[in-house]
Specification:
Length: about 130
Amino acid sequence: MERLSPSDRHLLSDRLEQMRQQVLEELRCTASTAGLDASLQPQDVRNHAEEAETHRIDDVRFAEMEIDRSRLRGIEQAQQRMAEGRYGTCADCGEEIALERLMTQPIAVRCAACQTTWEVRRRRGPSGPSPV
């Protein structure tokens, strides 16, 4: 497969930076919204249903922030691979990752074939049965 052209690398680098900025903004918004709820004191909760709803909302915000942090790590790792000249190379087989895959999934670390294999192994677990 043909290596990424300089214009492809530039386009993907810009895309990664846009993704990074978007995730940072989402984290800022989630954190500031969570700060508003921090003003609710336990005595402000009038019944168990309100308390349960408050906990549910906190759990959802925490999950959203964890997803955003994970996305940010993936983006920053892709930017690091790009800086080191390893971007676009499959971490498993060492072959080039298709440009189409990188355009749709700029943080991809594996080619499509290796990603499929990785996902199948992950679903099976360390000692799970093989798919039929």
